[in-house]
Amino acid sequence: MVILLVCSMVSMLLWSLVSERLRRWHVSGPLAMVATGLVIGFILREDVAEHLNTDLAERTVEIILALLLFVDATEVRGGFLGGERKIVGRLLGIALPLSLLVTVAVGIPMLGVTSIGVVLAIACIVLPIDFAPAAEILRDPGIPRRLRHGLAVESGYNDGIFSPLFAFALLLLGLPGHTTSPLEALEDAVPAFGFAVLVGVGIGGLTGLLARAASRREWVTSHGLRIAMVLIPLVTYAAATAIGGNGFVAAFLAGIAYKMTRLGRAHSHDDVAHSELSLVDEIGQMSALVMWSMFGVVTALVFFTPFEWAWVVFALLALTVFRAIPVYAAFLGSGLSLREQTALGVLGPRGTSSVVFGLLAFNAMRDDDAYAAMYVMVMTVLGSVILYGVFGARAARRLVGPGARERGSGSM
């Protein structure tokens, strides 16, 4: 694992020195890191699985996810629902649970794994949307603002919602060679979630109040606040896991609580100042690049895994049908045009979140199940990079049409 991390950091260093030139060639950071990860994976292919299946690998991806969750929670634009309560409410409250049910129902007979816990974990891998591979979609003025903002908020909250579900799925696996009943897993998951709420809200809320008071009295510099923003998710994650809580949920809730208390009720719809978020945001982006490099390494491993049509088809369904149909159902009677509903259903790229959950599942599962989870993750993310990175923005503009773009631009 140390070798993989060193190679990834060297690759990032080289990319950073020529990033502008690569950008002109439409080579993004994630794409460059996937390519270098592939090379590393082919060179170290005999030891890749051994390097990834270590405590160091697991802790690394867990800390990265905690950072990303915290940043997602603090960077939601225009208030906690991005000013699009109706769209976000239907996406998260109706479409997401329906997607989960459909994915699990299809996955049980299709994936050929050992338990429902494995299927649930794989569902948590393939469903969270993440615009890292197709960030230009959220900046494209040809797509109505209300759709872009709704998708951005959904992406921000996805990880925080799927994290406890993923942890519950792993609890269902129980000890090696055995499965735990849903009731026993729930008995473990509920206290873990409760501890996460206490730690996340407590640390995030307290540090937000302290930062607000220190700023008013000019006791802290912007440099000090930037350092504090990096430490908050790390301290929160460590404290939550130390007492048996879910560190991912705690980090996400810490971001929400920090924003609430840092800004105060009167400014609850404002954003945390970029001068405070810049350091943790850049570290989060750098950590995400490490994940893309690891994804490239894992992709190389898939080339040496027996081909399974069922896993490939399942990944393609996860990118399309498992999201689109629940979105159509969720927006019945919503007033959105069919074109806009289609855009919301089609625009669902997968990225860093799927990679992190996939690597954690690979470490937690037995061999056959681990390779199934890894294979499906790779096919889903690769398909997302190709589908959304190349065609996403252009397809979305055609879907919504010029009339929807004009209506959407003035809806805010």
Automatic annotation (TrEMBL):
Localization per record: Cell membrane
Keywords on record: Antiport, Ion transport, Membrane, Transmembrane, Transmembrane helix, Transport
Keyword RNA-binding assigned: no
Topology within the bilayer: Multi-pass membrane protein
Domain Cation/H+ exchanger transmembrane per the UniProt entry, residue ranges: 11-382
Transmembrane segment boundaries: 29-44, 87-108, 114-135, 156-177, 189-211, 231-258, 283-304, 311-331, 370-391
A Pfam entry, by short name: Na_H_Exchanger
Name of the protein in question: Cation:proton antiporter
